[in-house]
Write the structure tokens for this entry.
Amino acid sequence: MVVARELKRPLLELRQLAFGFDGNGVGDEKIRQQMISVADMAIRQVNDLAKMERLASGGFEMGPVAVRALCDDVISEISELFDGKKGEMTVRYSNRSRLVVANPELLSSVVYNFLLNAANYTDEEMKTELRIKEASGMVEINVRDFGPSLPFDVWQEVKGNLMTPRDIAMRPGSSALGLYIASKFSKYMNAEVGAVRHRDGASFFVKIPVPHQINMWGN
């Protein structure tokens, strides 16, 4: 928690400096926006690290979450990473169960970190795919990218929920810290996290339980 606070302070200062940067021309404005975007992403990951301490004490309540609306909110937040230069993201919703049992704050971070990881391997020809579908009585959120193949040892770590924050060989720029955070948050929510190795990329997914019975009247 102390480390997270120390990291967050200079990032907030950098963000404020970027807002006050009075550059001229399109090039300067682009630099300013990039500074703000990088600061926002870093601040979010620092905030996620600060949440890790609360996991052991059960500091996050679980309940019904509208999964499509949550994903829509995350997509809106991260959409600037998928502009014309970085390519596009396709979204497909085919889940019948609209509610899952999760913590909205933690689940939002899981989806955000999956998409942040995929953004590194998206360009004009390769599009990130986000899918929500039914899977073995649960709802699966799946993010597919078309970057380098996922190393076998990393695939095993994700599958066994043993992910550690380290560099991932063959996938430069990959947010290993983000995948680590996603795995820890998923475990807290009793959700199944995993990865699929493709010859032309990788898929990261989380399978979330659905409510078996919801009392609509609160009795």
